[in-house]
């Protein structure tokens, strides 16, 4: 059964997917896997084919908000560590895809999660 792990953002506590910035020396899907470990303790096999992109506003206080674009790569999770760099800064929770889609605020991310869940319904 397909599940989606969501984490809370550090600034607002809303449910989001692990994400980060490109990293020198890493392919985009490898950087995504590294961020998934740092933010949620996840290890696994990152698919080099993204499931899509979404845009959101990064909230950073008065007049510092910024619109960003995120490319989402699926990760076949093999383990979740007992400890990881941001463990004390975020909550993590596994959701069914329909529940994960309902839990996130960003419309583009809702669509990606719903589409991913529908494409994996037979898994």
Can you put this structure into words, describing what you see?
This protein is an alpha+beta fold. 27% of the residues lie in helices and 29% in strands. The chain contains 3 helices and 7 strands, in the order ββαβββββαα. The chain has a 3-stranded antiparallel beta sheet. Strands 3-6 form a two-stranded antiparallel ribbon. Helix 2 (97-103) runs antiparallel to helix 3 (107-119). The radius of gyration is 14 Å and the shape is globular. The N and C termini lie close together (6 Å). The model has no long low-confidence stretch (mean pLDDT 91).
List the helices and strands and how they pair.
Layout: E1 4-8, E2 15-16, H1 28-40, E3 42-46, E4 52-58, E5 66-72, E6 75-80, E7 92-95, H2 97-103, H3 107-119
Antiparallel strand pairs: 1-2, 1-7, 3-6, 4-5
How much of the residues is beta strand, in percent?
25-35%
Our measurement of the CA-to-CA distance between the termini, rounded to an integer number of angstroms, reads 6 Å
Mean pLDDT: 91
| Rg calc | 14 Å
Structural class: alpha+beta
- The run of helices and strands is EEHEEEEEHH
Instruction: Give the oligomer, counting copies of the same chain as homo and different chains as hetero.
Output: single chain
Q: Biggest sheet: strands, sense, closure?
A: 3 strands, antiparallel
Number of strands: 7
If strands are numbered along the chain, what order do they take across the biggest sheet? Answer: 2-1-7
Helix content: 25-40%
Please tell me what the overall shape is: globular
Low-confidence stretches: none
| Tally of alpha and pi helices | 3
């Amino acid at each position: 059964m397909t599940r989606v792990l969501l984490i809370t953002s550090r600034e607002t506590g809303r449910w989001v997917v692990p994400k980060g910035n490109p990293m020198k020396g890493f392919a985009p899907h490898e950087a995504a896997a590294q961020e998934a470990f740092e933010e949620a303790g996840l290890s696994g096999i990152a698919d080099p084919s993204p499931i899509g992109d979404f845009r959101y506003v990064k909230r950073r206080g008065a007049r510092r908000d910024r619109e960003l674009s995120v490319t989402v790569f699926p990760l076949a999770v093999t383990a979740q560590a007992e400890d990881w760099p941001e463990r004390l800064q975020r909550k993590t929770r596994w959701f069914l895809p329909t529940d994960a889609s309902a839990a996130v605020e960003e419309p583009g991310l809702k669509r990606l999660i719903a589409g991913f869940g529908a494409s994996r319904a037979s898994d």
